[in-house]
Amino acid sequence: MTIEAKRTVTIPSQELPVSYTPDVVVVGGGPAGIAAALASSRNGARTLLVEQRGYLGGMATAALVPAFCPYTDGEKAVIRGIGLELLDRMKQEAGGDYRELNEDKIDWVPIDAEVLKRVYDEVVAESGTTLLFHTAVEQVLVEGETITGVVVNNKSGRSVIQAKLYIDATGDADLAALSGVPFHKGGVEGELQPGTMCYLVAGADRAKFQAFLEETGQSLQLEKTVVEAQERGDLPAGRKRISGIAWVTPYVAGFNFGHIFGVDGTKAEDLTRAAVEGRQLIARQMAFLHRYVPGFENAHLVHTGDQVGIRETRRIVGDYTLVVEDFLTMRTFEDDIARNSYFIDIHLAHAGSAMAIKHLPKGESHGVPYRCMLPVGKANLIVAGRAVSSDRPVQGSLRVMPNCFAMGQAAGTAAAMAASGGQGFREIEIKGLQERLTRQGAWLGVGERRQTAALAGSVIEFEEEC
């Protein structure tokens, strides 16, 4: 069956009920959306959090990304506030076997997806946020620069949610795109980072696996063993290592392994193909683990992601675009609402290409300005998470979950301030926002000023990794 994109049907107009009238509606229940909802509610706004699935967590729970990327710059925590609070709570509520392995970690902390789902339910309820699962936004109602409502669809039918302020935490800038905000997607030739179908295995033996690593001198990414299997045709071409293995307990491990290429996460057809290809690839990887990797001979596949993990889709056009020169010069802005120290990490767009990587020096970070969350042409909409206004290299760094927590906390706090003052997002007082974020645990750096001029016009050289 082919897609008949040119055929259209006019549907009858429909009078819809107004189902909710909160001060702030947050669309998307991933890290940015959870932090935004908590911050908004804790700062006094009546807040509704809308999520399409029956649980919160985004890529951590829906796609089973096995570990949180680093919270630190190698010396100190850069992501604090709500993000660090939620990390600590997941660790405390996980079992003894989990804590024995992971309690003291703050970087690359394995994710116990089922514990995390419950923790998110609890903290959202404690904050007073109203939660609405199994609900998708299908239309945004706009008058000039103001969003007047969003049309949602769920088992109860179609209805309209009317809020004062709207937070787009969909990861794909769905709300912004539906309201007409311009955006970029991918590289100059339309290339996108690949997706990954992550998964969880049980019945593994961590001690035996660790002995294998010591015996062969390999890292956790099994670079020698993966290449050996690729040369024998037991694994497909592509990245010559495992992106990540995270041990939840000594016998349960999560995998971020391999890529699905050519996936646009804003297209249902691409996501469908990626889900099918991802499960087929995992079957091949399980055979590899059983045959090649001591400690996994008896491992059993217990869960694959509900969807393929997506690294990159839309990037909005905002009031400021954060660019690679800002990253490299570790620039601080007058309107910083977060700091980022995660490296530029652009996964290969096809099996024959390489990763593009760029690290900041240990102990260093750059600022994330409030303006990059403000979409042009909209007064009461803010975007938090990987879809903020940046160039493609910076998106390859900002996109990870700890950063999304920090941006979400800032967006939710700003929304509560705007709701209280009857303002739009551009009218709030930035110094007041920064003081409130800092008072509530966020870290915005020490205010050191750096210049970008030294890099203007120079060629940026990235490290490559196969």
Alpha-carbon distance between the two ends: 37 Å
Indicate the overall shape: globular
Largest sheet, in brief, is: 5 strands, parallel
User: What would you report as the Rg, rounded to the nearest angstrom?
Assistant: 22 Å
Structural class: alpha/beta
Number of strands: 22
Beta content: 15-25%
Number of helices: 12
Strand order of the largest sheet: 6-3-2-10-21
Low-confidence stretches: 448-454
Pfam families: FAD_oxidored
GO molecular function: 4 iron, 4 sulfur cluster binding; metal ion binding; oxidoreductase activity
Organism: Paenibacillus aurantius
Keywords: 4Fe-4S, Iron, Iron-sulfur, Metal-binding, Oxidoreductase
What does this protein structure show overall?
- The chain is 30% helix and 20% strand.
- It is α/β, with parallel strands linked by helices and 466 residues long.
- A 5-stranded parallel beta sheet has the order 6-3-2-10-21. The protein has a 4-stranded mixed beta sheet with strand order 1-9-8-7, with no helix packed on it. A 4-stranded antiparallel beta sheet has the order 13-14-12-15.
- The longest helix is centred in the middle third of the chain and has 25 residues.
- InterPro entries: FAD/NAD-bd_sf, HdrA-like.
- Keywords: 4Fe-4S, Iron, Iron-sulfur, Metal-binding, Oxidoreductase.
